[in-house]
Each structure stands twice: as C-alpha cells, then as structure tokens.
Description:
Blueprint: E1 2-6, H1 21-32, E2 39-41, E3 44-51, E4 54-61, H2 68-79, E5 86-92, E6 100-104, H3 112-121, E7 126-131, H4 141-145, H5 151-166, H6 168-172, H7 176-185
Parallel strand pairs: 1-4, 1-5, 5-7
Antiparallel strand pairs: 2-3, 3-4, 6-7
Helix pairs in contact: 1-5, 2-3, 5-7
Amino acid sequence: MLLFVGLGNPTPDSENNRHNIGFKIIDAINKKFSLSKQKPKFKGLLTTGLIEDEKVYAIKPLTFMNNSGICIRELLEYFKIDAEDVIVFHDDLDIEFGKVKAKFSGSDAGHNGIASIDKFIGKDYSRVRIGIGKPKNKMDISDYVLQNFDEDEINSMEKISENITDSLSILIKKKLDLFSSTVNNKK
C-alpha cells in the first residue's frame, strides 16, 4: 500500500498558487489512473485505486499547509500504512523552476507543510520536490509562494504534471533517482 500526498491550501483563491503544486499533481494522478471519486475523509480529500497492481491512496489535506501532518497521521494510523510508504508532492523554492527532485527523508528546508509532516510522522518518507524557483525581485517568500503561476508557468506545470504521471511506475518502485532523471529528461 502506498499513500500519495499533495500539499496545498484548500481555498478557491489558492488553486493556482505556487504552493499548491502538490494538489495539482494529485489531481493529475487521479485523472490519469481513474482513481475513485474524491471523498472528504481524514481532514482531506481522499481517493483510492490500483496503479501498477499496487493499492494506492491519494490525499489532498484540507488542514492548510502548516497542519498537513495532522491529516496524514490519521490516515496512516487508520489504514496501518508505514511512513516509508508515503510519497509527498510539494513545491520547492531551492530548485529551478520546472525541475523535479525525489528523495527519501531529509530536512524540511523551511517548508511548513513538510515540517508539519515531520512532526506528526517523522522524516522517513519520500518527497517529490517540484521546483518553483525563487522570486526574481525582493518579494517576500510567503507572498511569492502564495502568488498564482503566470500563464506560461501554468502551461509548463501541466507538462511537468504529465511527465510525473507518465513516470509514476518508476516512483511506485521507489527508484527515486531514476524517477527524477526520467521526469527531467522528458520534453
């Protein structure tokens, strides 16, 4: 059993924020693999299904970014899923826009959603970090991550989402380096 988690904020005006790329990835996975209809459970929107003969749960926490760990812990405890079988999709300022890096464990690097998950389930889970780059001017970081993608960036993010879902079979096998390079090498 695997749990995919997409980080974001649940308000309608947050939908196209840089911080909500995790939600966008979960939506793309749900669509491509025809997972179940989203249902409000465990303080999130939950879907389930099979991908590559693997039972998968996918959730978008509705607890807001800074409390994402609450939702995840409840789900893990209920379904008896190990933290090692969690894969979290989230934005990352320290990665060039559009690049993807997957890794197991590590620091939260100042990401409040990751800090919350670390607090509630520990650090032993996989992360798929999607680069949103840094602001080009002296914009405050919190304003930048809550800013909407521009039209060109939305088109780029749709392609990145497609590349991620096309390479999901590699991620399910937890071949994180191969997954990263495969996604980043797709045109």
